[in-house]
From TrEMBL:
Residues 24-259 form the AB hydrolase-1 domain. This is Alpha/beta hydrolase. One of its GO terms (molecular function) is hydrolase activity. Keywords: Hydrolase. Belongs to the AB hydrolase superfamily. Bacterial non-heme haloperoxidase / perhydrolase family.
Length: 278
C-alpha cells in the first residue's frame, strides 16, 4: 500500500490514480472521514484524464494512529509531504469541511511558497473559524463543540451513526431521500480512525482562526457552500471566506447539505470541472 513518512515519522496513506503526466487534483477530506469520501470525485476526474491524489489525514483512515499532531499545522505539513513525495506541480487542491481548513493552511504555508499550487477549492469548509470569537461574533459557542467531544467520548460508534443519519446529509429534513449506504459508509470511514485523533480534531476544526491563511491565498479560489448546511453554516464560513481570499468566487446551492459532494455529486462535479478547466 502506498505510504509516505513525514518528517516527524508518521506514515500517511495516499491514493494516486491516473496518468502521471496529467494535471494533478489533490483532495483533502473532512472530519472524521478518509480519502474514501472522495470516491465520486476521484472516479469522475480520472475519467476526464486528470491525475487524482487523496490521502488519509494522520489518525484517520489507513494512516498511522499517532498520539500527537492533530492540528492544522501538521495536517498541512502532512499534505505537503505527499505532494513533495509525488512531485506534484500545477495542482488544484480541493478540500471539504475540515479538509478546506487544511487546504487554506497548505496553500498559504506550503503550496504557494513552493510554487506547487494552481488553484484552490473550499467546499463546505470551516474557515475562517467556526468558534464564536470577538472578531467573529456570528460563530458557534464553545458549548457546541464541547457537546461534540462529550458525545464522541461517551459512545463514538453511536455518535458516528447519528451524525450522518441526521444533519450531515440533511437526511433529517422533511421529504429528504435517505441513502442507507451513504450513512453506513460514513460510519465505516469514521470508525477506521483513531478516537484520540477525532477528539482532538474537534479543536482543530473549530478553534483555528484561518483569517491570515485566507488573506495569503492569491491563486484563483472557488468557494462552494450549501445554503442548508447544518454543520458549517454558510454565513459563518463560505460568505466570509470568499471576501478574505485575494481572487475568490462564491457559488451557493439552495437546499444543499454539508454532505453535498456525495448526495449531489453530479451537480458539484460539473462545477468543479468547469473551474479546473477554466
Amino acid at each position: 500500500m502506498p505510504f509516505v513518512t513525514t518528517s516527524d515519522g508518521v506514515e500517511i496513506f495516499f491514493k494516486d490514480w491516473g496518468p502521471k503526466e496529467a494535471q494533478p487534483i489533490v483532495f483533502h477530506h473532512g472530519w472524521p472521514l478518509s480519502s474514501d469520501d472522495w470516491d465520486a470525485q476521484m472516479l469522475f476526474f480520472v475519467s476526464h484524464g486528470y491525475r487524482v491524489v487523496a490521502h488519509d489525514r494522520r489518525g484517520h483512515g489507513r494512516s498511522a494512529q499517532v498520539s500527537d499532531g492533530h492540528d492544522m499545522d501538521h495536517y498541512a505539513a502532512d499534505a505537503f509531504a505527499v505532494v513533495e513525495h509525488l512531485d506534484l506541480r500545477n495542482a488544484v487542491h480541493i478540500g471539504h469541511s475540515t479538509g478546506g481548513g487544511e487546504v487554506a493552511r497548505y496553500v498559504a504555508k506550503h503550496g504557494e511558497p513552493a510554487g506547487r499550487v494552481a488553484k484552490a477549492v473550499l467546499v463546505s469548509a470551516v474557515p475562517p473559524i467556526m468558534l464564536k470569537t470577538e472578531a467573529y461574533p456570528g460563530g458557534l459557542p464553545i458549548e457546541v463543540f464541547d457537546g461534540l467531544r462529550q458525545a464522541l467520548a461517551a459512545n463514538r460508534a453511536q455518535f458516528f451513526l447519528d451524525l450522518p443519519t441526521g444533519p450531515f446529509y440533511g437526511f433529517n429534513r422533511e421529504g429528504a431521500a435517505v441513502h442507507p449506504g451513504v450513512i453506513q459508509n460514513w460510519w465505516r470511514q469514521g470508525m477506521m480512525g483513531s478516537a484520540k485523533a477525532h477528539y482532538e480534531g474537534i479543536k482543530a476544526f473549530s478553534e483555528t482562526d484561518q483569517t491570515e491563511d485566507l488573506k495569503a491565498i492569491s491563486v484563483p479560489t472557488l468557494v462552494l457552500h450549501g445554503e442548508d448546511d447544518q454543520i458549517v453554516p454558510i454565513d459563518n464560513a463560505g460568505r466570509l471566506s470568499v471576501d478574505l481570499v485575494q481572487n475568490g468566487t462564491l457559488k451557493t446551492y439552495p437546499g444543499f447539505s454539508h454532505g453535498m459532494l456525495t448526495v449531489n455529486a453530479d451537480v458539484l462535479n460539473a462545477d468543479l470541472l468547469a473551474f479546473v478547466k477554466g
